[in-house]
Amino acid sequence: MNEPGAENQALYRTLKDILNRQAEVISVWFEPDAIQKRYLAAEVDPQRVVPSTGPESPRLGVHWKLTPPHDVFRVDYADPNLDFHCGWHQDEDHSNLGAAHFQYQTASMETPHHEGVVFEAESPPKLLWECCSELFEEILFTDTEEF
Amino acid sequence: MSGDPNRDWTEGLSAAERVEAVALTVSEPQTANWVAAEAEVAHETATKYLSQLADDGNLIADSQGQQTTYEPDPVGQYLIEMRELYEHYSPDELARSLEEMNEQIRAWKSEYDAETSNQLRASLASEDIGDERERRQAAREWDHLATRRRLVEDALRLYDRFPGEPRSASA
């Protein structure tokens, strides 16, 4: 049996594949390189998101560490055109909001807004898929117009 | 956006892909039932693909309890990763990255006055630290880099063992 918290070499390989399957994503790579694989980064096509943005490409960043029973992860989206940032974080921060929280910040906000979030998914690939769906289908589509 | 054909988890990935993605990333052994629910496939479908993944050396199946559980085979995954490093990078590229990782770990040792990531974690119990978040993150990254460092060292040993068969395009 694997030791609790042991590094799983398939984790980032699987998550890279999940990001690559998002229609809005142009390319996915490891930072600082694929030898160290410290985290995943993805370039988003500014014309494929709704509403479209540009001319600079938004970025997605994914950090993930398997730590049963709750993984530690951060899924962050940043659009330099709008100075908009949002992300789903499951870490030790804001534990008053529960295991995970969603946060966002627009150009007019001095500090980020945080709110608790509960995921339907439990496994990393499905969780990441859920975050991407919410980002591209709901957060950008609806909320940015209301911020 | 609702018309996007790849938006749903069950439409973006095939049943086999969902089972594999879920099974390869569990952090604790899980039953076929659990994988089936998470992958949104029938129990029989999950069992079929899980058995294949176990036969191929990607998963370990444990039938000692009342139910068979599955988890990633750490040796199988380690070998896949080592081979990828060996095939895609030259010895110079691997050595350069290895040195970067060593430098980073040396920097953590010096900054936090800790010899291991667990010593760094132990320092979290101290009351007079104001950088708890940074220390937790550094300990996690330290574990990760320690594993990557071993992988790179093993990939470099493959070059020593098979010196006449360079696999990297840039070697």
Percent of sequence in beta strands of chain B: 5-15%
Cα-atom Rg of chain A, whole angstroms?
Answer: 15 Å
Can you tell me the residue ranges of chain B where pLDDT is under 50 for at least 5 consecutive residues?
none
Whole-Å distance between the termini of chain A?
48 Å
As residue ranges, the low-confidence spans of chain A are none
What Rg of chain B, in angstroms, do the CA atoms define?
Answer: 21 Å
Give the key terms.
heterodimer; A: 147 residues; alpha+beta; B: 171 residues; mainly alpha; 3-stranded antiparallel sheet; 8 helices; Transcriptional regulator (chain B)
Structural summary, described in words:
Chain B: It comes from Halococcus salifodinae DSM 8989. The complex is a heterodimer of chains A (147) and B (171). The mean pLDDT of chain A is 91. In chain A, β1 and β2 form a beta hairpin. A seven-stranded antiparallel beta sheet of chain A has the order 1-2-3-4-5-6-7, with helices on one face. By secondary structure, chain A is an alpha+beta fold. Chain A has two helices and seven strands; from the N terminus they run αβββββββα. Chain A has one domain. In chain B, strands 1-3-2 form a three-stranded antiparallel beta sheet. Chain B has two domains: 58 residues, Winged helix-like DNA-binding domain superfamily/Winged helix DNA-binding domain (Arc Repressor Mutant, subunit A, Orthogonal Bundle); 86 residues. The longest helix of chain B is centred in the last third of the chain and has 30 residues. Chain B starts with 8 loop residues before the first helix and ends in a 10-residue tail after the last helix. At the A-B interface, α1 and α2 of A face α2, α5, α6 and α8 of B.
